[in-house]
Design a protein that fits this description.
The complex is a heterodimer of chains A (233) and B (297). Chain A has 233 residues and is of the alpha/beta class. Chain A is 36% helix and 27% strand. Chain B is an all-alpha fold. Chain B starts with a helix and ends with a helix. The chains are: A alpha/beta (233), B mainly alpha (297). At the A-B interface, helix 2 and helix 3 of A face helix 6 and helix 7 of B.
């Protein structure tokens, strides 16, 4: 297991957002974390990244992450692509990508600029454009590309499909799947459960701060009771 | 005569610019008003005076003043800002109070050290020399000031826009938590910006101390007030704005002093501040994004 989370509890804005979550991700896996709005999915990712104070244990690659500062966690190679992309919108595409390289901090580079441009050719066309002027889909590609520049050993993706047109989402998830097939470990938080179950191998359903259900994605996707009970739109 | 006044105005505006740049940089990156910036400026002047007084060569004394002022500024971040930041994300008002406290401490220490005296550099510390160019009289000190401002603002622009450290500073200015997800340490960036701002303030202190040949424990306060005006007119956080507004202010003030009755110049400056706030509340160079950010709070 590259990531092991046990009895994780966290408060967000004074409300208890996580009430004892256990979760594991194996190396090379793509695991989906789904559940209704406010279930605590983003809070969980932000605990992993060190942005939200928490109790319980998080072990990444045999190393406990307790009280580690966010930038140190990123430098270990546990990299988050935050919700809403969070571009550094005043900076160019190129500058955003180069900043991503900071997380390397001595680790070997697994993706360089040309790899990112091969994965997302549109970023090369726009390399000198300000990130804030990109379309939503392009910003999402940039956010993922920027994280890849830090040679992640595991990627945390927070709602990558948020606010994007279906055709863009399709292309994006195709890219995520090929990343995973090339060996990248991914923890994917998604509101779009069907999509998330289609690309991942395993899934956790989070409800009101607890893991309500977990198992193989294919089985969950075909279990109409689970779908209806937890994910009815 | 008028051109001469404009030249003198640009020279004093250039000095305001050095001071305001640091103040604006800290605001741009940390979103706090560092009210101890005037104290750091005064500390720089004091360090250079005592260094010269004990026989340190003047160029070295300037360097020493910049380094010490930079370190004092870093201490302000460590003592008065970072502890607040650990407790809350919203420290705008708390930081005003804590930096004001530090400013008072710096002033009190300086008052003790100098025995409430006005200090003057020994004669000959800096050669008093004038050149005449196109009928305008310009002093060696003014030339040095111009050179320093051009080199330092240019250098700061280059540092912020072309180096990895600069990219990190800009990333933190835009969004500290996103920056930290990329592996940038916001606290390291904060220390760095405080050092740069402090060193610039220290240099300004020396230049002002030299221009008026007067160094005293309260010398920072009027500059703090001017920096406020400059930074608001230029647009909080905008470095180009800070420089442009400083030069504008310097020239206006020089002309007003020359052609208008006593007391009017200050009135004029604050009237302009009032007008800018009325018509263009983000300042002449204020970014729209900044307004959105302030508005959200």
């Amino acid at each position: 297991m590259i990531l092991k989370v046990s009895s994780l509890e966290a408060h967000y804005d004074g409300v208890q957002a996580l009430r004892g979550v256990d979760l594991e991700v194996g190396a090379g896996e793509m695991v989906a974390l789904i559940g209704p709005n406010g279930a605590g999915k983003s809070t969980l990712l932000n605990c992993l990244s060190g942005l939200v104070a928490h109790r319980g244990e998080i072990v990444f690659d045999g190393r406990p992450l307790a009280r580690m500062a966010p930038h140190r966690i990123s430098r270990l190679g546990l990299l988050q692509v935050p919700e809403g992309r969070q571009m550094l919108s005043g900076m160019s595409v190129y500058e955003n990508l180069v900043l991503g390289r900071l997380a390397l901090s001595g680790r070997n580079e697994t993706y360089d600029l040309s790899d990112i441009f091969r994965l997302f050719p549109v970023l090369e066309e726009r390399r000198n454009q300000q990130a804030g002027t990109l379309s939503g889909g392009q910003q999402q590609m940039l956010a993922i590309g920027r994280a890849l520049m830090g040679s992640p050993r595991m990627l945390l993706l927070d709602e990558p499909s948020l606010g994007l047109a279906p055709v863009i989402v399709k292309g994006l998830f195709h890219a995520l799947r090929s990343l995973n097939e090339s060996g990248m470990t991914i923890l994917l938080v998604e509101q779009n459960a069907r999509l998330a179950l289609a690309v991942s191998q395993r899934a956790y359903i989070l409800e009101r701060g607890r893991v309500a259900h977990h198992g193989r994605s294919r089985e969950i996707a075909s279990n109409s009771e689970v779908i209806e009970h937890y994910l009815a739109v | 005569m008028m051109l001469q006044q404009i030249l003198n105005g640009i020279a004093s505006g250039a000095v305001y610019a050095l001071f305001a740049l640091g103040f604006s940089l800290i605001f741009g990156v940390q979103r706090i008003l560092n009210l101890a910036h005037g104290g750091v400026f005064m500390a720089g002047a004091f360090v250079s005076f005592y260094a010269v007084d004990t026989g340190v060569p003047f160029p070295l004394a300037i360097l020493l003043a910049m380094v010490v002022a930079g370190l004092v500024s870093v201490l302000i971040d460590l003592i008065a800002i970072q502890p607040l930041r650990r407790r809350s994300h919203d420290i705008e008002y708390a930081a005003i109070v804590s930096t004001l406290g530090i400013d008072m401490m710096l002033i009190s220490v300086a008052q003790q050290v100098s025995n409430t005296q006005v200090l003057r550099f020994p004669f000959g510390t800096f050669p008093i020399q004038f050149f005449t160019i196109f009928g305008l009289r310009i002093s060696l000190l003014q030339l040095v000031i111009f050179a320093a401002v051009i080199v330092l603002t240019g250098g700061l622009g280059w540092y912020l826009n072309k180096t990895s450290f600069g990219r990190q500073i800009r990333a933190v200015a835009e969004n500290p938590s996103t920056a930290s997800l990329l592996g940038v340490s916001p606290s390291a960036v904060y220390l760095q910006t405080f050092f740069i701002a402090g060193a610039l303030a220290g240099l300004t202190g020396v230049l002002i101390g030299l221009s008026f040949n007067s160094i005293h424990f309260l010398m920072g306060e009027p500059y703090m007030l001017k920096a406020f005006v400059v930074v608001v007119i230029g647009g909080l956080g905008s470095l180009t704005g800070a420089v442009a507004a400083s030069l504008l202010l310097g020239v206006l003030q020089a002309l007003a002093v020359a052609y208008l009755p006593t007391g009017v110049p200050d009135m004029l400056i604050f009237a302009i501040l009032f007008l800018v706030l009325l018509v263009q509340p983000n300042g002449l160079f204020g970014a729209a994004g900044m307004a959105a950010r302030v508005g959200r709070k």
